[in-house]
Amino acid sequence: MTAPLLLAEHLSKRFDNGVLAVDDVSITVYPGETVGVVGESGCGKSTTGKLILRLLEADTGYVAFDGMNLQTMIGRRLQHLRAQLQLVPQNPQTSLNPRLTITEAVVFNLRTHGWDKKAAARRTAELLDMVGVPRDYSQRFPHELSGGQLQRVAIARALSTNPKLVVCDEAVSALDKSVQAQVLNLLVELQRELGMAYLFISHDLAVVEHLSDRVVVMYLGRVVEESSAAELWRRPAHPYTEALFSSVPGPQGRRVVLRGDLPSPANPPSGCGFRTRCPVAMDRCADARPEPVAVRGESSESSDASDSPDGSDRQGGSHQAACLRVAEGSGADRSPVGTGAP
To answer: Rounded to an integer, what distance in angstroms lies between the CA atom of residue 191 and that of residue 336?
Structure first.
C-alpha cells in the first residue's frame, strides 16, 4: 500500500469579513499522480491550495506532507520542507520580480534554499533548457517575454528545488488555447521524466480531464464529489457535477441550466449548500448537510490499481459524492431538469 504524499484533512478557513471560503475539505495526493481540483470561480479551490502550502493558515484541520505534520513546522524545518512543495501561480507576471532577469529569478529561489552561486547558475541553465526557454532569453526581464514564455519560467522556478509536489493554481487559465496545449504537454512530459505529483487547480474541465488521474469537485467551499477522472467523466453522480459537465461544448446530451445565483459564502444555505440551485432538490436537503458516500454501481476501473501512476493499490480512490439522493441509492435514476437542445 503506497503512503500518501499529501494528506489534508478537514481544512476550514473563514476570513475576517465572515466569508467561509473552505469548509471541511479533505484532499489526498499520492506520489507521482495528478489530482485535479475543479469548480466555478469562488468555490474555494485556490484558497484550499494556499492552505495546503501554508500561504494561509487554516482555522481547523491537518496537513501532512511526506509523513510530516506541515502545520507544526517553523523556521529552517519549514523552509527545508517548502523546497519539496512548490507553486506555479496563475499569473507569472505578478509573481516574478520585474527588477530581476529570468535567470536571476530562478537563481534567487535556489539561493534561498541554500545552493551556492555557481551551482544555482548551472541548475538554472539546465531548467530553462528543460522547459524550452531559448538561451538568448536568459538575461531578459519579465516584461520582455510573452505569457507562455513567462509560464515556462514559472515552471522552471517551481522545479528548481526538485519538488515532490507542485501546486498548479490556474496555471494555464490566462493563456490562449494554443499556448495552453504547449504548457500542458510540457507539464505531462516533466512529470513523466521527473516523477513529481501535481495538485492541479482549475475551472476548465477540459484541462482537468486532460491532465488528472483523480478529480475533486468543489462547490461553495466544500467537496461535493471525488473520483478517478475516467469514472467521473463517464458517470458523474452529483447534480452540480452533471451541470458542470453539461456546460462543456460537445456531445454530452441535454444541457442542465442552474437556477439562481451562487449563494454568499458568508451566509451559505442550511443543509446542502447546492440545494438552492439544484434541479432535483428535496425538502429534506435543507435539514442536514450530506456527507460523502460511495456511489453505488461503481465500475471496477475507477478503483483498479492499474489507474494509479505507480500501479499500486490506494485507499481513497473510490467514487464518492456528497448528496442525499446518492446516499439513498437513487442518484443514477434521477432525471435532471434542463433546457437546451441535445
So the answer is: 38
Task: Write down the pLDDT at residue 339.
Answer: 33
Integer Cα distance of 298 and 326 in angstroms: 12
- Is 40:206 a contact under the CB 8 Å cutoff? no
Per-residue confidence (pLDDT) for residue 76, from 0 to 100:
84
pLDDT at 310: 46
**Beta pairing partners, 200:** 36, 168
Nearest Cα to Cα of residue 132 among 157, 112, 150, 152? 152
The phi, psi pair for 61, rounded to 5°, reads: 110, 180
Strand ranges across the sheet with 34-38: 85-88, 165-169, 197-202, 34-38, 214-219, 222-228, 320-321, 293-294
Q: Are strands 197-202 and 214-219 parallel, antiparallel or unpaired?
A: unpaired
Give the pLDDT of residue 210.
84
Residue 317: per-residue pLDDT: 57
- Residue ranges for the chain with pLDDT beneath 50: 299-316, 331-342
CA-CA distance, 65 to 88, in Å (whole number)? 18
Cα dihedral 200, 203, 206, 207 sign: negative
Predicted structure pTM score = 0.86
CB 149 within 8 A of CB 183: no
Q: Are 84 and 161 in contact (CB under 8 A)?
A: yes
**pLDDT on residue 312:** 41
Q: What are phi and psi of 319, to 5 degrees?
A: -85, 120
Task: Output the pLDDT for position 252.
Answer: 58
Query: Cβ(207)–Cβ(184) under 8 Å?
Result: yes
